[in-house]
Design brief:
The protein is an alpha/beta fold. 45% of the residues lie in helices and 18% in strands. It has twelve helices and twelve strands. The chain has helices at residues 2-20, 30-37, 55-67, 85-97, 114-122, 150-167, 187-202, 218-232, 244-257, 276-283, 298-309, 332-338; strands spanning 43-49, 74-80, 102-105, 127-130, 144-147, 175-181, 206-213, 238-241, 268-273, 289-292, 317-319, 324-325. The strands form two sheets. A six-stranded parallel β-sheet has the order 2-1-3-4-5-11, with helices on both faces. A six-stranded mixed β-sheet has the order 7-6-8-9-10-12, with helices on both faces. The chain is elongated and about 65 Å long.
């Protein structure tokens, strides 16, 4: 059935293209296009990416595009949801209508997927969830998930902060923390927030001075950091940003206010994702620590598809191993070789 589905998908796409661009089809009729592409053996993958909000997301998208090429045996359809769940739901339904072989989704938020994933299951289209997770009543609605343990990332950062403050002789001090969250309801926001909240509960001298949503973007984080500084002034010991783009936006606001950060600065700066730009900032001492979140999931998703094509059952969940970086861990050669 998969082979038939691929051919029919290719035919639909080609027919639609010829109808829209008839003069450019070189006289080829719609029926001829269908007949030609019915011979296609490409595996068609529909990919719904949540958006393009950060360097991490760009690297994640490129990993998928570089993996699912015609040379590798794939026909890849990519839809950018622009941070809107309703756009992703529409994209998934369109993929179902096109009879794609597989759907890959990096969801904007965790909830609200039961209905559309039920439609995909009913149509017999396997769904692979990547990066952020989905919270559904029936986990058979998706075939597999691959990504990071966001709670473990948050805990890694909080454990680092506890050790760092102890090494500085500040373990008994009152510590004022500003928290800039990512998109509410996303796996990264939920997990990284839970990690910090657990740290606040276990360290009675840690206090949350402010918590605002930066939406994982530099512009929004700069905006909310300016507002926070108006409210709390410079009484900030720790700034906990849930990705590098937010960290850069917050850094801009701190620069404007004349507040230093990073190694030897007024504010301990914690960031996540470990993008190329983020690691360079960490190497230069502008960030105290950057927790890794590997975006190169394309090959991992392809491995799941290869298993399914071979009639094998993949693992339901696959977590990638990740670490954290301090300035002394980093060199230009290391950063340049990472690829993201």
């Amino acid at each position: 059935m998969k082979g038939l589905s691929r051919k029919r998908t290719a035919a639909v796409l080609a027919a639609g293209l010829c109808l829209c661009l008839a003069p450019g089809c070189g006289g080829q009729t719609e029926e001829n296009a269908k007949e030609e592409l019915m011979e296609s053996s490409l595996i068609t993958v529909g990919f719904s990416q949540l958006g393009n909000e950060s360097d991490w997301r760009v690297a994640n998208t490129e990993s998928v595009k570089e993996t699912f090429t015609e040379e590798n045996g794939y026909n890849l359809l990519v839809e950018d949801a622009q941070q809107k769940q309703e756009n992703q739901i529409t994209a998934i339904r369109n993929f179902i209508l096109l009879e794609v072989d597989y759907i890959v989704i990096a969801p904007v938020v965790e909830t609200g997927w039961d209905e559309v994933l039920s439609e995909a299951k009913e149509a017999g289209v396997p769904v692979i969830v990547m990066d952020r997770q989905v919270d559904v009543e029936d986990d058979s609605l998706y075939t597999a998930w691959v990504g990071s343990d966001m709670y473990a990332e948050g805990k890694l950062a909080v454990d680092w902060l506890s050790d760092y403050l102890e090494a500085q002789g500040r373990q008994e001090e009152d510590i004022s923390i500003v928290h800039i969250q990512g998109t509410l309801g996303s796996s990264a926001q939920i997990g990284r927030t839970e990690g910090l909240d657990e740290g606040l509960k276990t360290h009675e001298n840690w206090h949350l001075a402010a918590r605002e949503v930066g939406e994982f973007t530099q512009a929004k984080a700069c905006e909310v950091m300016r507002e926070i500084l108006e409210e709390v002034g410079d009484d900030i010991d720790v700034l906990y940003c849930e990705n590098d783009s937010e960290a850069f936006g917050a850094m801009q606001a701190l620069d404007e206010a004349g507040i230093t950060y990073g190694e030897g600065g007024d504010v301990i700066l914690i960031s996540f994702d470990a993008t190329e730009a983020g690691l360079r900032a960490c190497m230069e001492g502008e960030m105290n620590v950057n927790v890794e979140c590997n975006p190169l999931h394309g090959p991992r998703v392809e491995e799941i598809i290869r298993q399914l094509e071979a009639g094998e059952e993949p693992e339901k969940e696959e977590y990638v191993e990740e670490t954290l970086f301090e300035p002394e861990d980093l060199t230009e050669e290391f950063i340049s070789a990472r690829g993201y």
